[in-house]
Amino acid sequence: VEDGKSAMIMKGGNTSQLISNVLKDIVSKPIVLETIRKNITRPFEDSTSLEFFSKKTDCSLFLFGSHSKKRPDNLILGRLFDFHVLDMIELGIEKFSSLSDIKASKCPEGTKPMLLFAGEAFDTDNEHKRLKSLLIDFFRGPNVSAVRLAGLEHVLHFTSLDGKIYMRSYRSLLKKSGCRTPRIELEEIGPSLDLVLRRTHLASDDLYKLAHRKPKALKAKKKKNISHDAFGTKFGRVHMQKQDLSKLRTRKMKGLRKRKGRAAVGEQDGPAPKEARVAS
Questions:
Q1: Which of 49, 164, 248, 267 could cross-link to 41 by cystine, CB 3.0-4.6 Å?
Q2: Spacing of C-alpha 28 from chain mean position
Q3: Who contacts 48 (Cβ-Cβ below 8 Å, separation ≥6)?
């Protein structure tokens, strides 16, 4: 049984004020475990320091922020498998609005976000598919058995359009609609990011498949003679032995009862002659 995934938030050797604000707003979310360190490392050239800190802090996700002349305002989002780098995707920040820039009431701490993805690239392009999987791992939060309806108020929306990724954060408001079902409006609360895809480091298909393998103990055992239809209705097949209808207990009626004398004559002498039956 695995614990919930936690993330390392790391600063590179050179960072800008924009990168610091982005990391600060992401850490303020209750979806990650912050581990901010200022470390001179380049994940795409050498990932040993990431793997070392991952093993030390038991974190399987990381977000690395850096700034350079060649790659300004740079974010690297990645995850690890067995304390080795599995996927890394580099994103450049083109526009940013922080939590303090947007004056609106925020969601309470611990709110589990709803993730929405818009754009054909998230379903067709391999790099965008991995990015979608990474974002789900990073923002999904802890696993819970149930969520109350009023707690569904935080929405994270990711849009892929013209080679860019737009991240927006909303709060859902329940308004009066004149009926039992409320009218829902979205209010932007921040942060908002306009990102561009840069470098990628994706795991091979074999390693990616190995990372998704589940142990046999967690696999649900198939139950015999049980099936489900398209609507989720459960059907069961019951096997019974062949029934002997002669021993079937039926409803007792007075008209079907046998008289004691007739039953005795019928069993001993057989059916009575016609004359005798008329005479009697």
A1: 49
A2: 23
A3: none
Distance, C-alpha 229 to centroid of its chain: 22
Q: What is the pTM of this model?
A: 0.71
As assigned by CATH, the class of the 7-218 domain is alpha beta
DSSP string computed for the chain = -PPPP-EEEEE-SS--HHHHHHHHHHHHSTTS-----B----TTT--HHHHHHHHHHT-SEEEEEE--SSS-SEEEEEEEETTEEEEEEEEEEEEEE-TTTS-SPPPPTTPPPEEEEESTHHHH-HHHHHHHHHHHHHHS-S--S---GGG--EEEEEEEETTEEEEEEEEEEEE--SSSSPEEEEEE-S-EEEEEEEEEE---HHHHHHHT---GGGSPPPPTTEEE-TT--EEE----PPP-GGG------GGGPPPHHHHHHHHHT-SPPHHHHHH-
Asked whether the CA dihedral 48, 49, 54, 56 is positive or negative, the reply is positive
* Residue among 9, 19, 38, 33 at smallest CA distance from 98: 19
Distances (CA, A) of 80 to 57, 151, 176, 188: 12, 31, 46, 32
CB 40 within 8 A of CB 12: yes
**Inter-residue contact 58 to 33 (CB < 8 Å):** no
Asked if 177 and 183 touch (Cβ cutoff 8 Å), the reply is yes
96-153: pLDDT as tens digits: 998 888 888 888 777 888 999 999 999 999 999 999 999 998 888 777 888 777 778 8
| Tokens read off for 69 | 């002349």
Q: Encoding tokens for residue 267?
A: 């069993």
Contact between residue 168 and residue 116 where contact means Cβ atoms under 8 Å apart: no
